[in-house]
Design goal:
The complex is a heterodimer of chains A (541) and B (195). Chain A is α/β, with parallel strands linked by helices and 541 residues long. Chain A contains 19 helices and 18 strands. In chain A, the strands form four sheets. Chain A has a six-stranded mixed sheet, sandwiched between helices. In chain A, strands 8-10-9-12-13 form a five-stranded mixed sheet, sandwiched between helices. Chain B has a six-stranded mixed sheet, with helices on both faces. The relative contact order of chain B is 0.16. The chains are: A alpha/beta (541), B alpha/beta (195).
């Protein structure tokens, strides 16, 4: 069957067709649609075999739950955006030590150019760091095909595998042919039955066990490299120009081919699976090259590594040497420039066009929250507002210009605490409900334990808004969570962020600023986008 | 056959429904397609665009090279000009004439029109008014725009119409009819303008 699918959807469908029993994820652009697609398929077909697909509280809980499912012999997928890998890292890196039982595939969606992220980190480093096999498909079809191969390889080698994609692949649609059996019917694998690991000791990472396992993992890593050389998605093709070869990683391959519709005139090493296959690099060197250009999304990961793998008489160029831009995603044009091909003729840029930055929606509760906070904050000489990751990060832009920091999930509360420890007053934190449950609760406990003088605003819109309105883990229980952590219930204040309540909201914030201790203010009103969606659904019923 | 298209607009205007219809039309007619879209932060009332490529040959890049875009279809006139560097020398701009003003420094409307008219091939139309005239709601304005771009696309009106019917079928016959009426209104406008 031929379908038009986003890269994310191709991965999701392949996971279903590979017989997964669970997908574990926290929403994050550009990875969100993988889990959503599986949720929608499950909803649309109640007769299909059940797949666990509820959202998790954060990427670490997701990774660990998936590892638990793998322990039981069933297949699981974990999905996250690149910075989610930092949150999951403890579980992820140690999952290489336990190994997998049921197939375990981790998908990390990187965001070069930072369309919707705070950095450009490259998840391939995590693959190398954990010493596991990692995949980087070049197109949607390859992504679909590689997911099953990745599950097979994971089960064969008893190891979790990583699939790294980037925004352009995740959020681009292309036609994908699904697997069919000889009789033409769809090839969908049944889920695994429960079976415990046959190496139970390996799952108890006591130092004595880990030392043994570490030796084995290092041996296995060699095999991973040998196997990636045999993967048909990796190849070296010599060209007419024997002096030059291009290493094209993941979707960079497409930009290369776009510029040479009639075939590439030099050698091409297509790289979509790692560890870097030494055998293919050897073939490239043996073909007589004296210059190698590495094209890759993200950081100069392969460029750096390959320089050490081949003789110094061969010149290696790429993002590190400045032949390609050091930052941002690649494009057919940046690749074209690196190849010294003539640029296409273009119209000049039109200077009448002005930027149109994103903004908080009209009618959004965060707007009313910032309007009140700004007024109260201005009453003090040196207010500081430590904010977090979510729609309300847009409070940094005009007209609000309300916040001073945004770093990582949950950092608002802990940074406000550190600032208060240093003598800041008033010290505000602004965090959303979903970000609070993701990584804010432990920071709140720190605040309580040291009686930090902070005002924490949990701007509760009852959803995970920025990624499109997914379920939020603490909905209906935010006050209970705060009280449970130890915040004095008298200083957990709920308000409704509407213009008509402005005086009340300001007074509540003022009172809590003057209280010497941990205060939590919860402005609560449903996200305007999910509100509209729910109203529409009601009307249709 | 090969058409490289940029769909442009402001977050929430409905450029992705145009992409869905064209994707359906391409797939039904055995053509290859790639369509890169924007999600997440950039959707919140900011500028949005989608690169859409349709071809009888396999397509490599998800992004269209600069200077190679055949058609810029825009639901907002200034947004059409944002991508003019990407337009090919003989490319077309098909755009709504109605400004979407959600920024304080939005340029003078007449000046934007003048810049658009200076380009070799521009079709400008009030998609919302045309939708209303055709008896369709304002949400169907995107189908008016799509209709107006059909003559530049190497796809037949019927192929696109059938795709509209299929894409909206889930929402009932009334919605299908109104979207087709909007599509036809745009198509007629464009055919008459090019005469």
């Amino acid at each position: 069957m031929k379908l038009l699918l986003l890269g994310d959807e191709a991965i999701a469908l392949a996971a279903i067709h590979s017989g997964i029993s669970g997908v574990y994820a926290y929403p994050g652009t550009p990875s969100t649609e993988i889990t959503e697609y599986i949720q929608n398929c499950q909803k649309a077909d109640p007769a299909s075999e059940r797949i666990f697909c509820k959202w998790c509280t954060n990427e670490k809980t997701a990774m660990e739950a998936a590892l638990g499912m793998s322990y039981m012999g069933k297949r699981a997928m974990v999905c996250m955006k690149h910075v989610g890998m930092n949150v999951a890292a403890d579980a992820f890196v140690n999952s290489a030590m336990t190994g997998a039982n049921g197939g375990l595939v981790v998908v990390a969606a990187d965001d070069p150019s930072m369309h919707s992220s705070q950095n450009e980190q490259d998840s391939r480093f995590y693959g190398r760091f954990a010493m596991i096999p990692y995949y980087e498909p070049s197109c949607q079809q390859e992504a679909y095909d590689m997911v099953r191969e990745a599950f097979d390889y994971s089960e064969k080698m008893k190891i979790p595998v990583l699939m790294r994609i980037t925004t352009r692949m995740a959020h681009s649609r292309a036609e994908v042919s699904t697997w069919t059996q000889k009789d033409g019917s769809e090839d969908i694998r049944p889920q695994n039955r429960i079976h415990f690991p046959d190496n139970p000791k390996q799952w108890i990472l006591l130092p004595a066990n880990s030392r043994v396992r570490n030796e084995q993992l290092i041996k296995d890593k060699k095999q991973f490299g040998l196997d990636s050389a045999e993967d048909p998605h990796n190849s070296f093709t010599p060209g007419e120009d024997r002096g030059l070869a291009i290493v094209a990683c993941g979707i960079a391959y497409n930009y290369l081919m776009e510029n040479f519709p009639k075939g590439v005139p030099c050698g091409v090493l297509k790289l979509t699976r790692y560890p870097i296959p030494r055998k293919l690099v050897g073939e490239m060197v043996a073909s007589g090259v004296h210059r190698v250009i590495v094209m890759e999304e993200g950081q100069p990961f392969v460029e750096d590594k390959i320089r050490g793998m081949i003789g110094s008489e061969i010149q290696v160029e790429g993002r590190l040497t400045g032949l390609l831009p050091r930052t941002g995603e690649l494009s057919p044009d940046s690749v074209r420039a690196a190849l010294h091909l003539n640029p296409h003729k273009t119209f000049p840029k039109d200077d009448i066009v002005v930027p149109r930055p994103p903004a908080l929606c009209q009618g959004c509760g965060h707007r009313d929250m910032y309007a009140a906070l700004n007024e109260v904050a201005a009453e003090y000489e040196n207010s500081r507002v430590f904010s977090d990751i979510g729609c309300y990060t847009l409070g940094a832009l005009p007209p609000f210009r309300a916040i001073h920091t945004t770093v990582d999930m949950g950092a608002s509360i802990t940074m406000a605490k550190g600032a208060a420890d240093a003598g800041q007053f008033p010290s505000f934190a602004v965090i959303g409900d979903s970000t609070f449950t993701h990584s804010g609760i432990t920071g709140l406990l720190d605040c309580v334990n040291s009686e930090a003088n902070v005002v924490i605003i949990i701007s509760d819109n009852l959803t995970t808004g920025m990624t499109g309105g997914q379920d939020s883990a603490g909905t209906g229980r935010i006050e209970g969570i705060c009280a449970g952590v130890g915040v004095d219930p008298a200083h957990i204040r709920v308000v409704v962020p509407l213009a008509k309540n402005m005086e009340e909201i300001k007074n509540v914030i003022r009172e809590e600023v003057e209280y010497k201790g941990v205060s939590v203010v919860i402005p609560r009103r449903e996200c305007i986008q999910t509100f509209k969606r729910h109203a529409k659904e009601k009307k249709q019923q | 056959m090969k058409k490289d298209i940029i769909l442009a607009g402001v977050g929430g205007q409905g450029i992705l429904s145009i992409a869905t219809v064209l994707g359906e039309a391409a797939l039904t007619n055995g053509l290859h397609i790639k369509q890169a879209e924007v999600h997440g932060m950039s959707q919140r009332g900011g500028d949005v665009q989608s690169n859409l490529r349709i071809s009888s040959e396999p397509i490599h890049s998800d992004l269209i090279p600069y200077g190679k875009v055949d058609i810029i279809m825009s639901l907002e006139p200034m947004e059409a000009l944002r991508y003019v560097q990407e337009l090919s020398k003989d490319g077309w701009i098909v755009t709504s004439s109605v400004p979407f003003v959600n920024i304080p420094n939005y340029p003078d409307k007449e000046e934007i029109y003048a810049h658009l008219q200076k380009l070799p091939h521009t079709v400008m139309l009030d998609v919302e008014a045309l939708a209303k005239e055709a008896g369709a709601p304002a949400q169907a304005a995107n189908m008016v725009l799509l209709g107006a771009a059909i003559p530049m696309m190497d796809l037949s009106y019927e192929a696109v119409r059938d795709a509209v019917a299929k894409v909206f079928s889930r929402k009932g016959q009334d919605i299908v009819d109104k979207n087709i009426a909007a599509l036809e209104a745009g198509y007629r406008h464009s055919v008459n303008a090019n005469r």
